[in-house]
Structures are given as structure tokens and as C-alpha cells.
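Aim 2 progress update. The chain analyzed this quarter is reproduced below.
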Amino acid sequence: MAIRLVAVDVDGTLLTADQRVLPRVKDAVQLAVDHGIQLVLSTGRSAGECWYVLEQLPQIRYAVTYTGSMVQDLKTGAVLYHCPLQADDLRVIYDRLRQYDGLWSLFADGKVYNPRAQMAQFGRYYPEELRELFEHSHTYIDDMDRLIAERTEPVEKVYISYCSKEESARARAAAAKLPYYATGAGFADLEVMNPATNKGLALGALAETLGIAQSEVLAIGDSSNDAAMLAYAGVGVAMANGEEELKKIADRIAPSNEAGGVADILEMAVRGDL
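Predicted C-alpha cells:
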């Protein structure tokens, strides 16, 4: 099967735990591009949060961002697909989920908003190695309650990182009762989005725009929020370090992110061995 479009998740897939793109992965990306394969980042992050990935991999032109609420052409800045949450939906989500102990991130206006008061407890909710990313690309605000209460414009998604897996499980159970798309990228987080989108739908929209058939699409990921794009793609690949439920629906299992597993899959795609 000839692969023409490869969607690659970022955290836990393209990047190592210490946020590096391994040299062999860089080489494989260039090899794929040289053979006419388009690569697209598929991430829960905003494009702005991917700045250091794109510095290392400038060949990548497209990005599915915000877990599928937007598709962007990184070279022109054009938005090719957009399916945000409305402001009234945001208030419903905030009202139902604010009781659980988590650090809220609001993705909107091309920014990521965090409550300033909670940042002093950053290590309670996130690994410390991510602090630099937050300080470089996030916007701290003094009054999250007011921002949400007064907002009139749509938002891309809500992301909440919890203090424990148990607290996350309670929040996920509550979110499952809401009429939105609720997923996650790890064991103690929650993403809430417009129910009409996900990474798979966004990837499909991009493939259609580019004139690429579903059978010519390869998707690589590690978490439950990657499930929709693995299900959509002609070939779905889960990382060895990925969630067990994702591995069950994958066509192949790649070596771990720490071993540069993305490189193995890209090399196979170039050879036509998938």
C-alpha cells in the first residue's frame, strides 16, 4: 500500500519523555518527505506550543491541533478546518467539572490560558520538565471565573490535568454525562471538545483537501485521544509505550518513543512494507 499522508501524534509518540526529537526520527522524516510523503502533526497542543518541534522538523507543513478542533497550514497560516466549542458550552463544562482538583487550560484566541494562582502548584498537576513549555507559550490570568463567565467567542477545547488518576477518573465519569466529546492524552487528564470533531474527523478533512484517499493515510499515536485517527487511517499504528486499549485497535505496534519508533514506521512506509 502506498502511503501519501502520515499523521503523527507529538507527546509520547514523536517526542521522548524529555521532549526531544531523536536524530534517527529527524532522518526518517526527511526520508519520507524526499519520497513525496506529507507529514502532519496531530496533537492536543496549539501550533504555538509546537514551536520547538517545528524548529527541528521544518519540513512539516500541516498540523491537526487542539485534538482535532482545527487543521492549519503552517506555512501560510490558513485554517483548513475548524470545529470549536461555543462559549455557552464552555460555561456548562466549567460548571459541571470545576469541583474536581485539576489545573485548567483554556485553548482559545491562539493562546492557552491558565489560572495564575495555581501555577505555584505546577508540580501537583504536571511533570516539572513541562514548566518551561508553559512559561514560553501559555498565558497566565488572574480570574478564570470571570474570563469564562464573560466570554462570548468560541474556544477550541478545555484541557484539565488532575492531581491523581483517581480524581481524573471521577472527572471523566462526570464528563461522560455531558453532550460533548471527552477524551484524554494520559492517565490523569481530560479534554472536552465539540462533539462533532476528533483527530480522525480532522485528519479526514485534511486528506480530502489534499486529494488523498483514506487508504493512503497512516496514523501513529499512543493515547486514547489518538483512537479516532487510528480508526480512520488506512494503517493505524500504536506505540509500544501506548495505552493498551489503543493497541487493540492498531494494525501495527511500533517500538517505543524512547527508541524512536516513529522512524521505524516511516522507513517501512517509504519501502512500501506496511
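The radius of gyration is 18 Å. DSSP finds twelve helices and 14 strands in the chain. These observations will guide the mutagenesis experiments scheduled for the next reporting period.
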